[in-house]
Every structure is written in C-alpha cells, then in structure tokens.
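User: Can you predict the 3D structure of MFS transporter? Sequence below.
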Amino acid sequence: MDESNPLPVPVASGPTVIPPVAAGPASASRPGRSRYAAFAIPIAILGWSIALIPPLVVVIALRLREIDPGTAAGNLSLVLGVGALFSLVANPLAGRFSDRTTSRIGMRKPWVFSGAAIGYVGIVVIAFAPSAPVVLLGWAIAQVGMNFALAALIALLPDQIAPERRGRTASFISLAQNLGGVLATFFVQLFPAGLVQYLVPSLIGLVLMIAAVAPIRDRVLAERRTEPFGLKALLGSFVFNPRKNPDLGWAWLTRFFMTTAQFTATSYLTYFLISVFHVSDAQAPTLVFEAILANAVGILLITPVLGWLSDRLRRRKLFVIISSVVAAVGLLVIALATSIPAVLVGELILGAGAGAFFAVELALIADVLPSDETAAKDLGVANLAQSLPQSLLPVAAPGVIAAFGYPGLFIGGAVAGVVGALSVTRVKKVR
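Assistant: Sure. Here are the predicted structure tokens for MFS transporter:
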C-alpha cells in the first residue's frame, strides 16, 4: 500500500459490472481497483483467521480431552484429517462457482457471507458435541464454510489489486493471517473455560470479516457464462494442466511443502507442550498464545518489508527461497528445544520465515494465474496445496511421533520447507 496517501473511505457506489461472456477466451472488463480493497482484504483475512484458529489450535484439542483424555491424540488426528478432506473439496468448488456467480451483490461476496454462516454452525456443533464423532462432524461443517469464504477472499486479490501492488498487499494478507492467530489465541485464553471460550472468539472474527468485505465493489456478471458446466467441468474444479501451466505447477508444489512445514508447528503445538514440557490443560491455552505471539513478532519484523521489497525489485523467487530456509531453521530450533523459552525462540524464527514466505508466494501465484476469468477456480486449486498437507499430516504424524517423538515431526517439517525452496527455482515466468 502507498503509505503516503491515506486510505479513502469507500464511496457508496454500485458494484462494477462485467459484461456477459461467451464460451472461449473471455473479454470481460476489469473491476475498478480501489485503495480500500487493498486495506479491506487483509482485514477480512484477519477476521477469517480469528474465526478459524481457535478450533484448529486449541478448542478441538481441549474438547476431545474433555470427552475422553485417553483417546484425545488419536481422535485429534482423525478430526483434523477428515476436516481437511472437506476443505480440499470445498475450496476449489467455491472458487469455480464463484467465477460463475451472477448475484447482484457480486461474484465473491455471496460466498464470503454464506461461508461465514456455515462455518459458525460447525463451530457451534463442536462446542456442544457429546462425542468425538460429533466433533468431527462440526469440524467438517466448519471447514466447508470457512473454505467457501477463503476461496472468495483470496480471489479478491487478482480482482481488485494491480500486479505491481500485489506483493505489498499479499504481505499484509500474510501479516493479517498470522496476526489473527495471535488475537484468536489471546481471546481464547481471555475468556473463561467453557462455551464462551469456544464460541465468542470465532464470532468476533466472522463479524470483522463480513464488516470488511461488505463495502468492497465486487465484480458482477450480468449474465451466466454460456459455456457448458457438466461433470467434466465440475471435476475440472480440482485440477489444472501442469504441462500448459508449469509455473503454476511448481508454485503449487512450493506451497504444498511449505504448508507441510508450517502445519507441523501449529496443529500439534498444544499436545507438544503437554507431552514434552508437562504443562497442564489449564496452562496450555496461555502457553499456546505466547508461542503464537512469538511467531507473530517474527512476522511483524519481516513480512511488510519483504512484500514492499519484492514489488520494488520485481523479484519473488529469491524471497521465497530465503524465507523457506529461515522457516526450516525455526522448526529445527523447536525440535531441539529443551525449554519453553527455546520453543518461543524457534517460533519467532519460524514466524519470520513462514510469514515472509506466504506474503511473497501468494503474489507469485497471482502473477502466474492462467486467466483472470478463472482466477477463483485456479486459486482454489492452488489452495489445495494448503489443505492437502492438513489432511495427510494427521495420518502420518502419529506414526512419526511414535517412532521419533515430536522432534522427529518438526525436523520432517524443516526438510519439507527446504524442498519447497528448491521447487520455486523452477518457476520461469516470475523472477
């Protein structure tokens, strides 16, 4: 964002209308780009993160321990794995349908608003769940709703932000996403244990997300697209052709491996602290908050600078490589930590690397999209690279932890981060 000019208050104007498009290459006009969108998209992502992080990091783990402490770890893997499978389906489908939505309020907003409602229903189910299967059901519903919203929110980046400004905006999106984790865990430990702790933090996040998105001048299709949309097109929502779009393929792999690295240090953080450092269930939310806060400090120190520098130098890959290696170092520090302060140092380093990575890498993916007219669909497929590790890791993690302990899990994540750095070197279109 251009700090020399304050962000204007959004004007009360109608949405930008895209003329109807026929089958084949689209000639739809661009929506008007505003500085408000550059401000609002990160704020909306902040709200999205505040809503999602409490169940992902704390609430589900504690709820499962309340139901049955003896089976909590195994049930956590099952719940997170199945929930991630639902996100695998929901995100690209929402992206594909968003590209074809003819709502009067726009292509993206209906999916943000409906996703928020569905997601919160799932969180309520988790809060009242009497058994692990019901927790699983609630998390599946929450994942569907939240990924409906995420697909539309991410599509707003190429819709609303010019290429030469995407690095800066993407850096603030990454900053907001990770700052959301800090605020979410702060709210969780701020409220008393029980239903208020389970329900209020996520509600705060969803309200913030909706409030930020509502004034945006969304793209609007005047008529439905005329190309057929059958089973083949539906299944095409989950794939792209890496031979025709090799840069998107390599960027996809980069995101996959780096998400694997990051997820190892978030999904099992609560149990890592309980198992290795013998903290109590009552202490765990506060310590998780401190760890996420340390992570966010690293993000705050690095992310805005790298996003701006990436735009200024018009280079993406170099910063992706550097940030991937830094994140791997952070995971190694956590793996070898013998005290909670050492864990916090590792989280600080990991935050500096992961936050910078996702800032620049999101701009890189936006730069290599094949077409503006399928932006949400292609970004949805790219988002599979974030959802798939969340499905696969819970399957593999229990075996890795049993064989090598939590250090083995974190070292494996560090290796994945390095592989991600190598993958991005194959991208040709972007420097």
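The chain has one domain: 34-216+230-424. Confidence is low (pLDDT under 50) at residues 1-30.
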